[in-house]
Task: structure prediction
Amino acid sequence: MTWPPATSAFVPCCVRPAPDGTDNPAMSASTPPQTDLTPSGGSSPRPESLAALFWSFTGLALQGFGGVLAIVQRELVERRRWLTAEQFVEDWAVAQVLPGPNVVNLSLMLGDRFFGLRGALVAMAGILTFPLLLVLLLATLYASVQALPLAQGALRGMGAVAAGLITASGLKLWPALKQNVLGTLVIIGSIAITIVAIAWLRLPLAWVLLGLGGLTCAWAYRRLGRVTADRGAA
Amino acid sequence: MSIQLASADWWALFAQFLSLSLLAVGGAISTAPDMHRYLVTQQHWLSEAQFSSSIALAQAAPGPNVLFIALFGWQVGLNAASSSGLPIWASALLGVSLTMLGTLLPSTILTYSVARWGHRNRERRVVRAFKQGMAPLVIGILLATGVILATNQGISTDHWPLWLLAAVSALLVWCTRVHLLWLLGAGAVLGGLGWV
Result:
């Protein structure tokens, strides 16, 4: 199965073949699920040293315009094969759900699995150091031209595009809800409430996460129990 | 823009980012609305333009989007430089260190320990309930952030070209594989020409 070539964790909206009804092409690969999920197990390739780990994460970060995730998938899964697609999807879900920058979380988790705590710190340093220097340099350059209407206009235009990119990254996650136990009504309702609460009422994030999030997690817990019970009865 | 920051204010800045760190479910960008409320509306440490240009610059540069937080700290440090008695660069770097450390420290420690536990227990009902229960909120927060960024020039209908640009870029990213750099470049050109 050659589709999708680049961004399998994120699938575009319009044309998304799902021949077997599963929402995730990576999961629908015909290979049986691996029991050993550590990339170091077996013959799968892995970074040979901490320095290699640092520089490959630096390389990933510097290629990732508007977010690093798509590059991580292409480089680590398809080119270097440090991870299988299944491992990537699962790790990405955890990195996504835990607080903190997703890609930083992902580098932390992968570095830890290859080299323990040292690996986690090195991978994180790799993904942050050079991009940080670069962005500070850019900010300094921008500061010297920011009085020009041209520069202000350009950045305003880029800001609008950035708003679109963030919106699209939310829309792209929609397929990940296909097998969610919450049910379509609860999902759409909680998305709508979140948008109104944050974008319109400007409520603090904590209220939304603890209040609404507490309710949806409790509901998911209940529904998962019912699914398990049904399965047990059948 | 010049502001006064006492040392208690620097601590408050650090504490604010520390407290937001564990709320950044779905990525650091999901705390942007809260940071906007604190830095711009409440404390007046950043101007509206500085806030949105920090996000736009971080999006335009390669690397994790979390670096917009470093730029907040950088900009607050620059704004406070005249009153802090520090050299400009030192004040700016202090801002970067406080915001980045505050943002990364709690989430890193939590992720490191929980990811290990969660990986071993990923079949457990409570782990799956958390993942599935939080999923729609993660999406809702991203969409809300898009709305806030698209409307931060004000919600007068004069800004319809900006909204149109944001909507078209969202559609293009969602439905095509166009390189993000082309879109950001197009946005810069349209803005530079004064069309949006």
In short: Chain B has eight helices and no strands. Residues 139 and 191 of chain B are 28 Å apart (CA to CA).
